[in-house]
Amino acid sequence: MPSTLDVYQKMSALPQGKRLFSIFYGQKAPYFASIHLRVEEMKPHFAQITIPKRRSVQNHIGTVHAIAACNGLEAAMGLLAEATCPSDHRWLPKGMDVQYLAKSDGDLVCTAESDPEAWADGPDVPVRVTAALKDGTVTVAGTIHLWVTPKKR
């Protein structure tokens, strides 16, 4: 079975491929579909998605809800983990620490980044995550903690 990264690389090379991959990824975990994410980039140690500001992700004051932002951060982290985790290992999120820094009053760009050394040192792997507006204002920042272990045979 091809890896998620293989599928991304093949699909993103096609016209409308990133849009189609975004739909595919949104269906992989149904709660990702609720934020209507668009996958911008996926590679080892880096992933980026965009959450469009739509009524379905807004809170009572008309900004992107904090939990929708966290959903986007987790989606970005999942792409990073799929692209980075060795094929003989598995990853599981074990916690998320975030701070809400500003109102999310527009589309959010959710980014996940990790350091190669952290994956080598495992099994605890921190992934830095941020959600930012198009002007660069960071609205949510934090760390998602992964547990990376060898697969049982």
What does this structure look like?
- With 153 residues, the chain is α+β, with helices and mostly antiparallel strands.
- The chain has a single domain, classed as Hotdog Thioesterase (Thiol Ester Dehydrase, Chain A), CATH 3.10.129.10.
- Helix content is 33%, strand content 34%.
- The chain has five helices and six strands, in the order H-H-H-E-E-H-E-E-H-E-E.
- Strands 1-2-4-5-6-3 form a six-stranded antiparallel sheet.
- Strand 5 and strand 6 form a beta hairpin.
- Pfam families: DUF4442.
- InterPro entries: DUF4442, HotDog_dom_sf.
- It comes from Aeromicrobium erythreum.
- This is Thioesterase.
Keywords for this structure?
153 residues, alpha+beta, Thiol Ester Dehydrase, Chain A, 6-stranded antiparallel β-sheet, 6 strands
Q: In total, how many domains does the architecture comprise? A: 1
- State the strand order across the main sheet: 1-2-4-5-6-3
**Percent of residues in helices:** 25-40%
The CATH topology is given as Thiol Ester Dehydrase, Chain A
**Uncertain runs with pLDDT below 50, 5 residues or more?**
none
Number of helices in the DSSP assignment? 5
Shape: globular
N-to-C terminal Cα separation, in Å?
17 Å
Strand content: 25-35%
InterPro entries: DUF4442, HotDog_dom_sf
Protein name: Thioesterase
Pfam families: DUF4442
